[in-house]
């Protein structure tokens, strides 16, 4: 029986693909309704949920702007878990941050 050795590069590629699939599944499993509830409780005092009114805090972008930003597209929930210059440090769990991110992503979808 012939033995086949899998290279480190192949193992790394497989691990990266599995990680990407798990991220995609996590994003699909995110609860948009729960994300909205959390965002209304924790974010609405500063961020605008609609693009037609300015945010309560000038430095806080509207969710539509956040959803379209390359930074949010790259970092998503990780961006929510970190406090910013004027953003307080919320104690969201990773799952809650994913839910809020899923809700914010709904603002970046084109109207039908």
Structure description:
The protein has 112 residues and is mostly helical. It has one domain (8-108): Cytochrome c-like domain (Cytochrome Bc1 Complex, Chain D, domain 2, Orthogonal Bundle), CATH 1.10.760.10. It is 55% helix and 0% strand.
H-E order: HHHHHH
Q: Approximately what portion of the residues adopt beta-strand conformation?
A: under 5%
Shape: globular
Classify the secondary structure makeup into a structural class.
mainly alpha
Task: State the CATH architecture.
Answer: Orthogonal Bundle
* Largest β sheet strand count, sense and barrel closure: none
Distance N terminus to C terminus? 58 Å
Number of H/I helices: 6
The number of strands is 0
Low confidence ranges? none
Output mean pLDDT: 78
Share of residues in helices: 55-70%
Reported by name, the CATH topology is Cytochrome Bc1 Complex, Chain D, domain 2
Number of domains: 1
**Roughly how many Å is the radius of gyration?**
18 Å
> What is the CATH class name?
Mainly Alpha
CATH superfamily: Cytochrome c-like domain
Q: How would you summarize this macromolecular structure in one to three sentences?
A:
With 112 residues, the protein is mainly α. It is built from 6 helices and no strands. The chain has a single domain (8-108), classed as Cytochrome c-like domain (Cytochrome Bc1 Complex, Chain D, domain 2, Orthogonal Bundle), CATH 1.10.760.10.
Descriptive key words:
112 residues; mainly alpha; Cytochrome Bc1 Complex, Chain D, domain 2; 6 helices
């Amino acid at each position: 029986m012939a033995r086949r050795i899998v290279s480190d590069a192949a193992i790394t590629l497989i691990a990266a693909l599995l990680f990407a699939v798990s991220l995609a599944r996590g994003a699909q499993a995110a609860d948009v309704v729960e994300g909205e509830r959390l965002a209304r409780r924790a974010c609405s005092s500063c961020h605008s949920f609609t693009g037609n009114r300015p945010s309560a805090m000038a430095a806080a972008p509207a969710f539509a702007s956040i959803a379209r930003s390359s930074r949010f597209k790259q970092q998503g929930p990780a961006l929510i878990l970190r406090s910013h210059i004027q953003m307080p440090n919320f104690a969201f769990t990773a799952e809650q941050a994913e839910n809020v991110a899923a809700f914010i992503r709904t603002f970046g979808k084109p109207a039908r």
